[in-house]
Amino acid sequence: MAFTFRDFPVAADDLRSDVLAGLAACPKSIPPKYFYDEAGCRLFEAICAQPEYALCRTERALMASRLPDIAAAVGPLDCIVEPGAGECSKVRLLLDALQPAHLVVLDIAGAPLAAAAQALAHAYPQLAVTALGMDFIRDLEAAAPCLPPGRRLIYYPGSSIGNFAPDTATALLARFRRLAGADGRLLIGFDLKKDPLLLHAAYNDAAGITAAFNLNLLERLNRELDADFDPTRFRHYAFYNPVAGRIEMHLVSLAAQTVSVAGRRFHFALGETLHTEHSYKFRRDEFSTIAGNAGWKLVDDWEQQGFAVQLYG
Predict the structure, then answer these.
(1) Quick check: is 165 in a domain?
(2) pLDDT in tens, 179-211
(3) What Å distances lie between residue 216 and 203, 213, 223, 234, 263, CA to CA?
(4) Is there a domain that residue 256 lies in?
(5) Does residue 176 sit within a domain?
(6) Is 90 among the domain residues?
(7) Domain residue limits at 128
(8) Nearby residues of 97 by Cβ (< 8 Å), 6 or more positions away
(9) How far is the first Cα of the chain from the last one, in angstroms, to the nearest whole number?
(10) Model confidence, pTM
(11) What letters, b where the CB count within 10 A reaches 16 and e where it falls short, cover 203-220?
(12) 3-class SS at 282?
């Protein structure tokens, strides 16, 4: 077994500065990357198991059913790089089919990533696994020295690209292009535009797991930034905006209130929202235009039940 872990810890000052800037803005917002403390990671895995949230199950089914075609289109390679790898479960199908010599996984939640990647290294003893605990949105270029030579595939599943506005998504895909190298490839999954009622239900599950995930952000701020949010005075609110083509997720203040965060005070009016996430949905041609603007060329694509996977080179 070959396993390496390097931690690029997110400094408390980064969390503090991002949160204070977001709370001072109009409208108020906090970057969604801060959802993923230990509790947030567990809650997100629970979201993926909810009956209303079909995205993960559909992606797994698509990958399983089309894996021979995907593997043939990708071709031989030396290394798979997965930003935002989480529990490292989605990449296993590709490891079995492509049998690369190296796997490099990146995630902002360093400790859970290290545990998952080490388990993966035990399961694949011929695979050299490197786990990088980093905010890859900020520090992606710092991963380059940790990558082995050879042909690389950037694997970005789960429609995570939908968390970025189109211009920001283009910029991130351009950074992936540089990280992959001249002969590298990108395999990316994204949610397609569909019935707004299905999208609404996916982010408002009956069990309240997504609501707990959203509200857990306030608990993290209380713990790590000495804040005094009362989560019972905020309500999870998510809806699909068909004009913008995105889900918007907010925490709505149920009363006029003032909260303290890192020694500063912020007022919330009754009904004012704290914007915590958006999740863009695409048509396949819309997404290929975004990727093309980032320097990628479409090689092949696959669709199943409202979800798409595309391969670029």
Answers:
(1) yes
(2) 999 999 999 999 999 999 999 999 999 999 999
(3) 15, 5, 11, 11, 20
(4) no
(5) yes
(6) yes
(7) 52-194+281-312
(8) 67, 68, 70, 71
(9) 31
(10) 0.93
(11) bbbeeebbbbbbbbbbbb
(12) strand
